[in-house]
Amino acid sequence: MEVTRLYPEKIMDLPDAERGVHVLEIRKCIGCGACARICPNDCIKLVAYSRGNPVKNKKLQYPQIDYGRCMFCGLCVDDCPASCLIMSKQFEISGWNREDIIYDPEDIAVGLYSDQELAELAEEARKAEEEKKRKAAEAAKAKKEKAAKAADEGDKGSGEKAAKKKKAE
Ligand code: SF4
Ligand code: SF4
Known about the structure:
- This protein is α+β, with helices and mostly antiparallel strands.
- It has 4 helices and 6 strands.
- The protein has helices at about 35-40, 75-80, 105-110, 115-169; strands at about 20-25, 45-50, 60-65, 85, 100-105, 110.
- The strands form 2 sheets. The protein has a 3-stranded mixed beta sheet.
- One iron/sulfur cluster binds near residues 31, 34, 35, 80 and 85.
């Protein structure tokens, strides 16, 4: 039986359940922050990353992971509602200082959008935002009109009451 291996020339077969560096499926991430909230070691922070989907993830915020703190428990993966955070078998993490092992979204993202796709998504997000504003303005106008009508009817009602009272006297 082979016990000692000449790492890194020879790497042992890793088990299926191996938990290594995260992989972020950028097209699915909604930026909800559930991964950051559940992390017991507080090693996930949501940071800006411009090459995401502004329709799905309006603030374009994606996880950044500090591997100096990560204990590879997998809770962040289990809690992700979009199932877009997974753990790869990549276990080699090294750097000259702590900052080198803080991985930004661009370091762990897969399924990146092309420039054309990003332009189309930006346009889609702009239209959706415009539509949202238009609907909000319409709702505000309708509310104002309703309030004015109610006030008008109230004035009319009290006027009629006063006239009736005067007649009775
Ligand atoms: S990776 Fe998952 S849990 Fe984390 S922000 Fe994205 S969608 Fe939310
Ligand atoms: S694997 Fe565990 S410790 Fe590492 S980022 Fe996810 S929740 Fe935090």
